[in-house]
Amino acid sequence: MNRGKTPLTIDATVLRDVLDGEWAEARRRMRDLTEDPSLHLPADGTLEELRAATTAGIAAVAESGLTRLPLSEGEGGSNSHAEYVAGFEELVAASPSLQIKAGVQFGLFGGAIMHLGNDEQHEKWLDDALSGRLLGSFAMTEIGHGSDVAEVATTATYDAEAQEFVIHTPFRAATKEYIGNAARDARAAVVFSQLITNGVNHGVHAFVVPVRDEAGSVVDGITIEDDGKKGGLLGVDNGRIAFDQVRVPRGNLLTRYGAVTADGEYSSPIDSPGRRFFTMLGTLVQGRVSLDGAAVVASKLALDIAVRYAHDRRQFTSTSPVEETRLIDYQRHQRRLMPLISQTYANAISHDTLLHTFDAVFSGADESGEERELLETQAAGFKALSTWDALDTIQESREACGGAGYMDENRLVGLYGDMDVYVTFEGDNTVLLQLVGKRLLTDYAKELKDIDFGGAARFIGAQAAEHTLFRTGVANIGRTIGDLVTTSVRSKRVRSGKVQEALLSDRVETMVASVAQALRPARSMSQADSAALFNKHQNELIEASIAYIELLKWQGLNTEMHRVEDEGRHPDEAKILRRIRDLYGLTLIEKHMGWHSMHGRLPMARARLIGPTIDSLCAKLAENSLDLVDSFGYGPAHRRSPIADGAEAKRQDEARAYYRAARARSDWPVDEKELRKRAARR
Amino acid sequence: MNRGKTPLTIDATVLRDVLDGEWAEARRRMRDLTEDPSLHLPADGTLEELRAATTAGIAAVAESGLTRLPLSEGEGGSNSHAEYVAGFEELVAASPSLQIKAGVQFGLFGGAIMHLGNDEQHEKWLDDALSGRLLGSFAMTEIGHGSDVAEVATTATYDAEAQEFVIHTPFRAATKEYIGNAARDARAAVVFSQLITNGVNHGVHAFVVPVRDEAGSVVDGITIEDDGKKGGLLGVDNGRIAFDQVRVPRGNLLTRYGAVTADGEYSSPIDSPGRRFFTMLGTLVQGRVSLDGAAVVASKLALDIAVRYAHDRRQFTSTSPVEETRLIDYQRHQRRLMPLISQTYANAISHDTLLHTFDAVFSGADESGEERELLETQAAGFKALSTWDALDTIQESREACGGAGYMDENRLVGLYGDMDVYVTFEGDNTVLLQLVGKRLLTDYAKELKDIDFGGAARFIGAQAAEHTLFRTGVANIGRTIGDLVTTSVRSKRVRSGKVQEALLSDRVETMVASVAQALRPARSMSQADSAALFNKHQNELIEASIAYIELLKWQGLNTEMHRVEDEGRHPDEAKILRRIRDLYGLTLIEKHMGWHSMHGRLPMARARLIGPTIDSLCAKLAENSLDLVDSFGYGPAHRRSPIADGAEAKRQDEARAYYRAARARSDWPVDEKELRKRAARR
């Protein structure tokens, strides 16, 4: 035991194993790939150059063999879904543009064909899609309908005579928008449209639509516009696609959840149109899962740069008259960066639990509705928080590097611009948290589902009305930790994990119960009134969702810490994980201190210890902060940030050598200040 | 009286007068100027095109006559400093690049000559600088020393024989860095260097150094590098300047605070080298003042765009089966945007009080040391908070516009990138808050100044050691509102202004006292120990500074609200100002609820009312939110954001018309959902 010893002696590879998780191998293989300079965007490239470089990267990703992992063994894959996603997320280190472009090509375009197409359709398109020979778009979002996908206005009307679907954009707002691959590269698109046959609208279905010919000319009847410059992701050619009565063969409808016979008769394995729609969307959850992981990669890179710079950079001679103080030694600097490291650990480890759920559902190991719902809730909630966390982390890192952080060459500003859109795409974070909230309510009080038909469900996108069983586990939490809240909190151990969990989970339970109670009267209300009531508690519900996801992340981190502790092979690494867990937990409790106090959960005297305990944890972690960023597993070729890899240290060394030599010289000018001091002493 | 009436009937021009403040006329004149398309950056310009366009704007700014306002009447000006700055801030609406480029040219380069030069030097350079004929840089920051300006390493050694100063960069870290105007345009630079004569270093002084000849070629001995791409401000040509024994005439030393005779004898009107340095820097406070105002302009523009979009954009049919709900009607959307509007009001109104202080000091109306220190503290603290607020506001606005917010054409992402560097330049915000904190400590407990010589002062940049009198007024606050905290808080009026002020100011006083108490032992400690002690409380001190600045901003808003109320001419506008003040105050109290509870200032029952009161204020303000953004005073030519000015509304109208016509058609497809409902009813 080495109680109290700081800094701890840390083997970064032990922590790296913790962070890289179950699918470490795929992660590391792709991490190696991203060191290849040909995958990096040219520093001063034009929009066209950035796009061309990103497109070239698509081929490299396909060649890596990664894209075939999720295929069944019969189709040449290994039914490995989490392995695929884990590796794929690492593309962020090459560039987020490549990650997103590859996500569009393989995950969305290829994924739609894979998950929504039949065998014949797989045969026809899948290999070309997964090899990158057939570049494609995923045309779901419309200008007028982003979050509310069920309401897309593009129509696909079946013409039995011709055995064709007629794809049509009825008005400007129905134009497909922000579509990756559209502006430059896509030859085909999976287009989500309202399927109409025999005078009946069967809801949103996916169609494979050729959009450009082999020569790259846009197909007749299709109009493509370029979205041009965006806040980031400049390597991705987003654009708008409109259809003017464009005909595609009947066989281009992806038929897994709905098919049309030659004479126009519709059939589906799922009767309820609502459940059919959400099941279809559910197959595409991989996008959200991968964004959660991508956000972790981006956060790691930013912290890696900021922490290394903070060890090299010095400013102000505070402790010594000749040696300036390193940024990492300032308390405020520690307070700015260390909680973000603990948060990144929590997000990385929790992401691995999400990957487990994802793999269980997609591999078929657990195809239960409950597991699928857990997956959707975790993916929505984790993605929402981790993408926001990534923006906060990158921004704080950029500010912690001062002016140097603002220079494009040091990577941080570009990373911010790229990650910015992650918070509103693949599900706007606010909408995703509402989805989580509704699931919490459904789980907490089954009777509440009655109000779904009033209006609340529509309010959050109607998904929740389809589900009644949901494994949030909140109902259990309350029962098991009820006593701890009143006892352990009074103990002296502010860092007690049980107290942390009690506070965090009690908060979730109380908040959910409070909203559920408030919404009870909605059952007997009109649509308008129940929607208004729901709206009055929207903010509270979203806050409850955030509290729930924070709890899950804390629990993920806590479980992993206990695993390493129990294993007993790495005491110092277990100890630092405990510090990380405590910092994460106490930072959350500090953030919500008002709530805990207001609800009588945290005695004043105890509350006052939280700040100083956080200070102390930050100081301890700062001593091992290079180990912590080493554990992220990135090198200079990933960071590609001169200030993080020696440029600053070299300049400082040169300056110090200069002053050392100067002080030894007899003709070195004396400071006027010094002369005045000497005069005063005389 | 119209108690309880919502929405209020608001005359936006009344609120505009409140926001535009004392120097409204200059503000509006420049606001009109920024509508000129020739001042806007080309949408898809190359770096060179963006720079050229920005440089062209400099001439337009000079022609407006603005730049001469601060000159004395004898020099053709009107000694109008705040008027100058107020007008100048509005350039942000043209582009932040133009504001910064103009700030470098007129405020820093011209300002240094104006404030640090003698009459002869004014005669020689000032007119050319203020007309933009002589483009110049302000070369203070070095790669190695950003915040710690006193430690710049560039030397200016006097050669009596030649009557010249030799400017020299002794090592790479001493290279002047991030210097605006350097990479492309500057023909001269004001260079801050250690003045050495007769073997004595007299500290940092400013020298006018030619850097390019008339033809634009860089002067021999000078090396200029281009900083290239940055996170924003792409119209500003930042660069690095290094000097290799570059000679300038003796007359190029700006002599206001230090002169050298022909034979090398140094003299200064200020004996203390430390005070001399900070007095010199103090003349340049205008930069910080103007960034505070610029941050307000940027925040207004972002909110203007987001609020207008929120009124047009609809998503999800929650309250009605056919009409989708406007974003502005969602509670969470109100909660995201309304507090930012109240914060922007507080920042705008407080900025006007800062301009008053600035004008008093610079016009000579109040040249007292106290007023100057108040100015420096306000400028540092206001700038720190308002620039962070601007980033938060722009980011929230961009997210509130979803994918459309990420498109460059809608302005928000560009605005974010441009404003990003405002938080770390002209004083890194963290360093500025430490400056505020040290002033609070100095004011609170005079005896604390003893520790300055130990290390604490050096820790925050040594400025505070020079000052002992400081008008923060914190000592008074405690005495005057002590009773309110214990009485009014228990009253039912959560919105009571007295309670808000009591809570906010009690927090400041308690925090400052706590840090002061903790730092007492530093007096008898070594430099290293006292620095360590100070560092242990650095975070607390910075939090205290933030609390103090928040209080000042609340008070500014409160005072203005009372002025409009007392005037009695605009009851509805006074009422909305009260809602704005309450929302601002309660949002601050909610943010720090943990602290207030933890210190027993806020009973639980009272604390629980704060959230719902904020919800209700947000809902009320949302009803007048178009009035509130109208009050910002910007039009389509300032916003230049299609989604804010009709593009979205037009698309929605078209879609609605389509569906209206469709529903009337007999052959309109029926929804499968509807068929199933009908079948179920049978």
UniProtKB/TrEMBL annotation, chains A, B:
Signal peptide: none annotated. GO terms for molecular function: acyl-CoA oxidase activity; FAD binding; fatty acid binding. Gene3D superfamilies: Acyl-CoA dehydrogenase/oxidase, N-terminal domain, Butyryl-CoA Dehydrogenase, subunit A, domain 2, Butyryl-CoA Dehydrogenase, subunit A, domain 3. One of its GO terms (biological process) is lipid homeostasis. Keywords: FAD, Fatty acid metabolism, Flavoprotein, Lipid metabolism, Oxidoreductase, Peroxisome. This is acyl-CoA oxidase. Its main location: other. It is an enzyme of class 1 (oxidoreductase). Pfam families: ACOX (PF01756), ACOX_C_alpha1 (PF22924), Acyl-CoA_dh_M (PF02770), Acyl-CoA_dh_N (PF02771). Residues 507-635 form the Acyl-CoA oxidase C-terminal domain. It is found in: Peroxisome. Its cofactor is FAD. Its EC number is 1.3.3.6. Residues 137-246 form the Acyl-CoA oxidase/dehydrogenase middle domain. Residues 57-132 form the Acyl-CoA dehydrogenase/oxidase N-terminal domain. Belongs to the acyl-CoA oxidase family.
